[in-house]
Amino acid sequence: MKVLLFTLAIGLACSLAAPAAGEDSLAWVVTTRYAPASRSVEIEPCAREAHASVTFVLAGNAGSPGIVPRREHGSFEPTREGWQASAWKAGECARFNVDLDSIAGDRRARGSGASGAAIADPRQWLWLPDSLGSASTIQFALPAGYGVSVPWRRLADADGQPRYALGSDPVDGPALTAFGEFEEIRMRKPGGVLRVAILAPRDSALARRLHAWIDGIATVALTANGRLPLRDAQVLVVPVAGSSSATPWGEVQRGGGSALHLYPGAMASAAALRADWTATHEIAHLFHPYLGTRGRWLGEGLASYYQNVLRARAGWLEVDDAVGRLRAGFERGRREATTAGMTPSAASAGMHRQRAYMRVYWSGAAYWLTVDARLRRDHGTSLDAVLARYSACCLRGGDVAAPERFIADLDRLSTTRVFSVEFVRASRTTAFPDARALDALLDEPALRTAIFAPRG
């Protein structure tokens, strides 16, 4: 079974507003230098303004791992959180050196045979001031032929080196960064840019095959409403050396922005990659905010619904096949015994512990099919159209929303109560949705054509 992780603490707040007055005084410029020989980074945060006192902490607030920083004037004092310094001058910089291999854990092994890239969660290496403002930026000094993949929104380059917005989204959520001999390619599609990094030798057959696959997945996503859901997203593709399995694992993470991470087999054929559902499932997660553990059934349900609908629209599945896969998924959800007597929210909260994946994924998919059908039949609109409006108004990157807030926003944008009425019905029941009602929707000719028919 493919376990598709989708984790982030619901308490993370998402900053959507423009910088407030005086925010520039809290802005820092962080320069990160990568050294391939030692597989290490030097992080250099520099202040625009003077500070009476500043404390530097890891982005994950994990405390000091024994790294002693340097500064140009004065000294540091260790604290429980990190390192504190007084009388920080305008323009002064701190310097931290981090060995990436020492913190990478098992992430480093994935795909290392393809590119030798250094992969790590920025919460383990990125040292930042606690006074970081939303106008702060991070830029990378890289040797010739090396690239970087990060979750933050790309800005104009600084002296020919990549630069990103650092302070606009919370940085203390799960994320990945990668450094190595690869190229980040900006794949421009209607509605946004996917920053694709394939950790394989440049211009190799593997890199070309995986790039074509990601381009195809982006095109599949466009069949929802003609646009990508986000203006900017990281796509990190880590080939698993020696594996011919299409995509044994994928995930979406939201720390610092929205990111899609995929781990295809380095020996997987183009046909095997196209036949697999994982990448479509994961990119469909970009159409909604992170909904917390209680809302997993909504998020995983939307991805499970769209993994079949969008591939049918793109011609990657026959319509009958897509419908059959939904029926089979509903049946798996109905048969799962570990969640008997639980609501979808309760099953979601204990999903990994109880391995309740089928109930969570497919009760959610049943909800979205029901909503989509009601919108099309009774209100002259569709789930696709409403999610397009939500993307335009409300999605920025590392978005977090309570399930009830998300549903209320969709009601407002559709000028209906379809989402909330069906949400209340579905969220309060302890039984799986009725098979006959779902089959009737899938068997209705006009509805089947409207939802699944190939586009263009």
Helicity level: 25-40%
Low-pLDDT residue intervals, each spanning 5 or more residues? 1-23, 106-114
* Count of DSSP H/I helices: 14
Question: How much strand content do the residues show?
Answer: 15-25%
Tell me the overall shape: globular
Give the total of beta strands.
19
Measured on Cα atoms, how large is the radius of gyration?
23 Å
Alpha-beta classification: alpha+beta
Mean pLDDT across every amino acid position: 89
Query: What characterizes the major β-sheet?
Result: 7 strands, mixed
Strand order of the largest sheet: 4-7-2-1-10-13-12
Distance between the termini: 33 Å
Give your account of this protein's structure:
- This protein is of the alpha+beta class.
- It is 34% helix and 22% strand.
- It has 14 helices and 19 strands.
- It has helices at residues 112-115, 205-222, 270-275, 278-284, 296-313, 319-335, 344-349, 351-354, 357-378, 383-394, 403-414, 418-428, 435-443, 445-452, and strands at 28-35, 40-47, 51-58, 70-71, 77-78, 82-88, 94-99, 118-120, 127-129, 137-141, 147-149, 153-158, 161-165, 177-180, 184-189, 192-198, 232-237, 249-253, 259-263.
- The chain has a 7-stranded mixed sheet, with no helix packed on it. Strands 15-16-17-19-18 form a 5-stranded mixed sheet, with helices on one face. The chain has a 4-stranded antiparallel sheet with strand order 5-6-3-9, with no helix packed on it.
- A hairpin with a 4-residue loop joins strand 1 (28-35) and strand 2 (40-47).
- The longest helix has 22 residues, at 357-378.
